[in-house]
Write a structure and sequence with these properties.
Elements lengths: L2 H14 L3 H23 L26 H18 L2 E6 L5 H11 L1 H5 L7 H10 L27 H9 L5 E8 L6 H6 L13 E8 L9 H4 L2 H10 L2 E7 L5 H25 L10 E7 L9 E2 L2 E2 L18 H12 L3 H4 L8 H4 L43 E3 H15 L4 E5 L17 E2 L11 E2 L5 E2 L3 H13 L3 E7 L7 H14 L11 E6 L16 H7 L6 E4 L4 H13 L4 E5 L4 E3 L4 H10 L1 E3 L14 E6 L1 H17 L5 E6 L17 H8 L5 E5 L3 H7 L9 E4 L10 H7 L4 H11 L7 H22 L4 H4 L6 H4 L1
Parallel strand pairs: 1-2, 2-3, 3-5, 4-5, 9-12, 9-13, 10-11, 13-14, 14-16, 15-16, 19-20, 19-21, 21-22
Antiparallel strand pairs: 6-7, 8-17, 18-20
Length: 804
């Protein structure tokens, strides 16, 4: 037995055994936390009960959630003691997000809250401010929100505590993430799918997650499934996920303190043993059986047992505000005062209102306090990525639209070398689609992470892999969130349609980033980079279920200081955009481009200039000489619709040579917004240079047409924009037929140009009739030949004269 082993076992024994003084400290801290929790829910005056409670001491609106809070603070107290004894770095994530007052109270007792918010001082005046601000106008939310020191997980939308916890410990070997799973949260689909995080951890390189399933029996208005199951069934379920289950149950004190201390010591000791083995060369590579705790305690523990003769503690009635009529009901007011005084606040806070030494003594020192952990303010730990020069991965474009390439394959080569240069702070997260999305070059330097059994048939997979593939958008998205919020960088790549599976997570993360920007103490974190490929327009073979560009619309609705949407038309633009996104901080960067071979338009120098501008006129594609306004503007945003737009412009050039056409390509979608509404919004002068103020614009868009109308609102004569895009017309068909069904094909764009131009040269009517014939020819051809017409399928600018 090594000295390190001896030391760990000795410390584990210290954590396990509680002296009378330990129990007294735990009890005092827990009582203080419960008192502060209730004060936040109810009080706007008389914070220390220096006189009897009066109706005016009660808030006009009683908001908050009591039921889960005492269990959360009970666990917090014990983990704080563990940290103080062991020096373990830990953060605390709460699935029951409405337990906000308990975690705010914990940060206050540790002193970190007052360090960040000096007005909420450790005295009677600060306590009153703490109470009044909770869930009040101008105050803080009822969740464990971004304003809560020590938090990386709000929990308002349930289901993500474990994915955030697992993401936080990847490539973070010294961190222990305590993840309290509420039994209501355990009923959600994302949470049920996230237990499998242990199948992807490498104990030699990663930290550890300690899940604590908190079964207190009830949700808002009824029982929870797992709390009503036979404990043996619950244990079997969790053991099937791969955990060693440690159970603690009861409400008796001090017995519960002793039992939970032993359980926590047991769990911590097992975690340390797993890590010690893996890091010391004794690991056989098999997936460890990581510990977890099932804690069964009453809902509303230590609260009013009954109210008006109705049972409260241990039932759903204690979920929110057990005493709802306090301001107007003298009996309820008296019961609230009795409840508050049951914690004996005069023993917990001194004459000035500060926590007494017995309470303060439980807290670890400095950054070891969970409310002060730098891991929960990951921007302070973030190191810039070492990114190779993206220009060296360029596609050689000697002539626009003359050659094809798989654009995302070039991105895969860049990401491969980002992996190599950053072995401890970059990961790709992808739902079993890395190769499918043409990003497989990363497997040249890293396999897929996998801690389960590996067979001879497996390729690029094993315990040392760092490419994260699991067939769950929720897991991939959540892991990346936890990874970036604790200071590392990454990208989530998925099929476009199925990004909607985790779209709500994108929204919630955007809200977090938006609120964090308002807090000077929150350091900026690496951006959440989302790559959508296998897009609606090229999922012709998979059919309607795979055809949906909805995430663009979702991200567009988010605040301008957070949201970014990029639609690079080719590989070199994609490389330029990706480099920018990987270097950015505290944004949601949405990049949309297909994986299939596509025409390449710009040289690398041209692409860099074009992406920096966000949009530009492609003079080579149109017939606009720039001296006067064109007859029509053909605009485009998105790879497939860009090809259709350029093809439409070429048709007009060849068949109506005197018709002046300007082609505008947009990469940065946010540039269309007015600058007062988004920091990327182009100036009025620049907008006019591109789109004029009066000429009609036929806009071919990758997503839903309404998005462009939303973006150009407030621009000069916005009604002149005629937008074509995805209108939910899809099936299993051909690539070009997708554009035809949604009326964004080159022929539809030509007809739109003719229909909307104010000046038409001779021959326009004949050209329109020709387009109609081509569409009819297409419809017949695809049914007979099961593929697109050759002059469409093989079209490029290089051979247009020959095929025209």
């Amino acid at each position: 037995m090594t000295a390190a082993t001896d030391a760990t076992e000795a410390t584990e024994a210290q954590v396990r055994q509680l002296s009378d003084e330990d129990v007294a400290r735990l009890d005092a801290w827990w009582r203080a936390n419960n008192y502060l929790t209730i004060g936040q829910i109810y009080l706007q005056g008389n914070p220390l009960l220096r006189r009897p409670l009066e109706p005016d001491d009660i808030k006009p609106r009683l908001l908050g959630h009591w039921g889960t809070s005492p269990g959360l603070s009970f666990v917090y107290a014990h983990v704080s003691r563990l940290i103080k004894l062991t020096g373990q770095q830990a953060i605390y994530l709460t699935g029951p997000g409405h337990g906000g007052p308990a975690l705010v109270a914990a940060g206050y007792l540790e002193g970190a809250y007052s360090e960040i918010y000096p007005d909420v001082s450790l005295d009677e005046a600060g306590m009153l401010r703490l109470f009044r601000q909770f869930s009040s106008p101008g105050g803080i939310p009822s969740h464990v929100s971004v304003t809560t020191p020590g938090s990386i997980h709000e929990g308002g939308e349930l289901g993500y505590v474990l994915v955030h916890a697992f993401g936080s410990v990847m490539d973070n070997p010294d961190l222990l993430s305590i993840a309290v799973v509420g039994d209501g949260e355990a009923e959600t689909g994302p949470l049920e799918g996230s237990w499998k995080g242990v199948s992807f951890l490498n104990p030699a390189r990663d930290g550890a997650v300690l899940p604590i399933l908190h079964l207190n029996g009830a949700k808002i208005a009824g029982p929870t499934v797992l709390a009503r199951k036979d404990p043996a069934e619950v244990r079997s379920l969790l053991e099937g996920h791969g955990y060693e289950v440690i159970e603690v149950e009861g409400a008796d004190l001090p017995g519960m303190h002793h039992r939970f201390a032993a359980a926590l010591a047991d769990a911590w000791g097992k975690i340390r043993a797993i890590q010690r083995s893996a890091r010391g060369g004794d690991w056989d590579g098999a997936r460890p059986r990581w510990p977890m705790i099932v804690l069964r305690s009453p809902k509303g523990w230590t609260g009013p047992e009954q109210v008006d003769g109705v049972q409260m503690t241990g039932t759903w009635r204690s979920h929110q505000v057990p005493l709802a009529g306090v301001k107007d009901n003298p009996e309820h007011l008296a019961l609230l005062e009795q409840w508050l005084r049951s914690y004996r606040p005069e023993e917990l806070f001194d004459g000035a209102g500060a926590p007494v030494e017995q309470v303060r003594a439980l807290a670890p020192d400095g950054d070891l306090r969970m409310s002060a952990s730098p891991h929960a303010n990951g921007g302070v730990l973030t190191r810039d990525l070492d990114i190779p020069d993206f220009r060296k991965y360029a596609v050689d474009v000697t002539a626009a639209g003359a050659s094809r390439a798989e654009s995302t394959r070039k991105l895969g080569e860049l990401l491969r070398d980002v992996y190599s240069a950053n072995p401890d702070r970059f990961r790709l997260f992808c739902p079993d689609e890395t190769n499918s999305n043409r990003l497989g070059a990363v497997f040249e330097v890293s396999g897929r992470a996998f801690a389960e059994r590996v067979t001879d048939a497996d390729v690029a997979i094993g315990r040392d892999g760092r490419v994260m593939e699991v067939l769950s958008e929720h897991n991939c998205h959540g892991w990346l969130e936890g990874y970036t919020l604790t200071g590392r960088h990454g990208m989530f790549a998925t099929y476009e349609a199925f990004a909607m599976v985790s779209a709500s997570q994108t929204v919630q993360h955007g809200k977090w980033l938006q609120e964090a920007k308002r807090l000077p103490w929150r350091a900026k974190v690496p951006s959440l980079n989302v790559l959508l490929t296998s897009t609606a327009w090229r999922n012709d073979h998979n059919g309607f279920s795979h055809q949906g560009p909805g995430l663009i619309q979702v991200v567009l609705t988010q605040r301008g200081d957070v949201a970014r949407v990029y639609l690079p038309p080719d590989a070199n633009c994609l490389l330029s955009v990706a480099d920018h996104c990987l270097r950015s901080r505290s944004y949601i960067n949405l990049i949309v481009i297909d994986k299939q071979p596509q025409l390449q338009w710009l040289s690398m120098d041209e692409a860099v200039e074009h992406c920096a501008a966000g949009a530009g006129v492609w003079e080579w594609a149109g017939t606009d000489d720039g001296t006067t306004d064109p007859d029509i503007v053909l605009a485009c945003a998105g790879d497939v619709v860009t090809m259709e737009t350029v093809a439409a412009a070429r048709i007009l050039r060849e068949r109506l040579p005197k018709f002046r056409v300007r082609v505008v390509n947009v990469v940065d979608l946010m540039g269309l917004i007015r600058p007062k509404d988004h920091p990327h919004g182009m100036s009025a002068t620049r907008f006019t240079e591109l789109f004029t103020d009066t000429v009609d614009v036929v806009f071919a868009f990758h997503g839903y047409p309404g998005a462009v109308h939303q973006l150009v609102h407030g621009r000069p004569d916005a009604d002149r924009f005629r937008v074509r895009g995805f209108v939910e017309e899809g099936t299993t068909t051909t690539p070009f037929d997708m554009t035809v069904r949604n009326r964004v094909s080159r022929y539809h764009l030509v007809m739109d140009a003719i229909n909307n131009a104010k000046r038409l040269p001779r021959g326009a009517a004949d050209l329109k009739a020709w387009c109609e014939r081509k569409l009819a020819e297409h419809e017949t051809y695809v049914i007979e030949h099961l593929e697109d017409m050759p002059d469409v399928r093989d079209w490029s600018l290089g051979d247009w004269a020959e095929r025209g």
